[in-house]
Specification:
12% helix; Immunoglobulin-like
């Protein structure tokens, strides 16, 4: 007694081969596509940013990241808030003054302890503004991104250190 699930002449075998063939035709070319570059627009609308600068209202710099190097930190009293302006830096480390570069961009701040700090972003005018509130004593850090159309153009190399006392 012979028992084979697939014989070379069976309809089920031919259907399985046909399905595998059709599936591979569509999947193999899809593997070559870079998901990071799967959006239809010119490179000119991407922000050319090499860092960022956080300043308090009197233009005093409290934190800077430029090409991976950082200086400063953020210190907030528990129960208080600190308003900071966020300016982005060009490849020479200078503030990018032209607000037209940021009209279709938005900031994202993530990867911080929500029990220690909260962020409120004001992004209608460049330079952007962020309000950081101390919610509990402790230390945390946050990642900053400049994004458009659902993907980041710039991501901070280091997390921004924040201490609430």
């Amino acid at each position: 007694m012979k028992f084979f699930l697939f014989s070379f002449n069976s309809v089920l075998f031919k259907f399985a081969i046909f399905t595998l063939l059709i599936t591979s035709i569509f999947l193999i070319p899809a593997c070559d596509q870079d998901l990071e570059d799967n959006h239809d627009h010119d490179e000119e609308i991407h922000a050319d940013v090499d860092g960022f600068l956080l300043q308090i209202s009197d233009n005093q710099e409290i934190y800077r990241e430029f090409k991976g190097s950082t200086s400063g930190n953020i210190l907030i009293k528990n129960g208080h808030s600190l308003e900071l302006s966020v300016s982005f830096l060009d490849d020479d480390g200078n503030k990018i003054p032209d607000s037209s570069n940021f009209q279709d961009k938005f900031m994202q701040i993530s990867e911080y302890e929500e029990a220690i700090i909260s962020f409120e972003l004001k992004q209608n005018i460049y330079p952007f503004t962020v309000l950081i509130s101390g919610l509990g004593v402790g230390q945390t850090s946050a990642k900053l991104q400049l994004a458009h159309e659902g993907h980041p153009d710039y991501t901070s190399t280091n997390k921004i250190p924040v201490t609430v006392e």
